[in-house]
Design a protein that fits this description.
single chain; Pectate Lyase C-like; twelve-stranded mixed beta sheet
Length: 257
């Protein structure tokens, strides 16, 4: 038997399910996850995950998925509501065009996280790769939020149009790479520690954190620390550099109307 139902039974259905993903093709695994949600599962544990793509992608449900292993690309893509917790590392394109919900990665994660992210939260305990947060955007009450506990590679926040990016550099490595905020025309990036002007794209500037923004940043850090059992006093300690766009239309002169 590939999987088993566990936990409290409610109206003939289990609300907690455990699936052994060892050797399963990604389509088969994702079909099983969807079938269990349709049957009433509200918590799904995936064991022995090894690179299966698209876990949680396109899901719109009140469900928590806990992953033991390393999921493949596009984890939680186009997701709208669920919570995904990865107990190990993640790969590329996590939260691609995510609309709402939360993804928590207890290890490292790859490149292009949060691409086109429209809402929800993505927390990574360790380092993240290149082009994280590109094309992030917010709409009205939707404010996508992405926090990396370690460092981030080049092109962080490229073409960012909205939302919040936070990089904490908790291990003391260089916190961000080059081309920070290239093409950025909305949203805000907070970097714990110093950022050199030469690391930034020409479309952004470095300014002091405003009092009202300190409140939002602190709330974000509190939630991040709760997920990873960190002390918020230590994480919030130190100066944060605030990166913002200098124009909402950085390429306006390239177009004719």
């Amino acid at each position: 038997m590939l999987y088993e139902r566990v936990g409290h039974l409610r109206a003939g259905r289990a609300d907690s399910v455990r699936i052994d993903a060892r050797g399963l093709y990604y389509r088969e695994l994702n079909e099983m996850v969807r079938a269990e949600i349709a049957a009433g599962a509200r918590e799904i544990h995936l064991d022995n995950v090894n690179g299966q793509y698209y876990i949680g992608s396109g899901l719109k449900a009140d469900v928590k998925i806990i992953i033991d292993g390393v999921p493949g690309n596009d984890l939680g893509a186009f997701m709208d509501g669920p919570t995904i917790v990865v107990l190990g590392n993640g790969q590329d394109n996590i939260g691609n065009t995510m609309n709402s919900g939360k993804i928590v990665v207890h290890g490292h994660a790859g490149d292009v996280l949060g691409y086109g992210m429209r809402g929800g939260k993505l927390f990574v305990r360790e380092e993240v790769g290149y082009r994280v947060g590109i094309h992030m955007k917010g709409y009205q009450a939707q404010v996508p939020t992405l926090v990396a506990g370690g460092s981030a590679g080049d092109f962080l926040g490229e073409y960012m149009a909205g939302g919040i990016l936070v990089v904490l550099g908790l291990k003391g490595n260089p916190t961000v790479g080059d081309y920070l905020g290239t093409g950025m025309h909305g949203g805000v990036i907070y970097v714990r520690g110093d950022v050199k002007k030469g690391q930034c794209g020409k479309e952004v500037g470095m300014v002091k954190v405003k009092a009202e923004e300190e409140v939002v940043l602190k709330e974000t850090l509190v939630e991040f620390c709760q997920e990873f059992a960190l002390k918020v006093e230590e994480v919030a300690d130190g100066d944060f550099t605030r990166i913002v766009p200098v124009s909402s239309r950085p390429y306006g002169n390239l177009y004719a109307y």
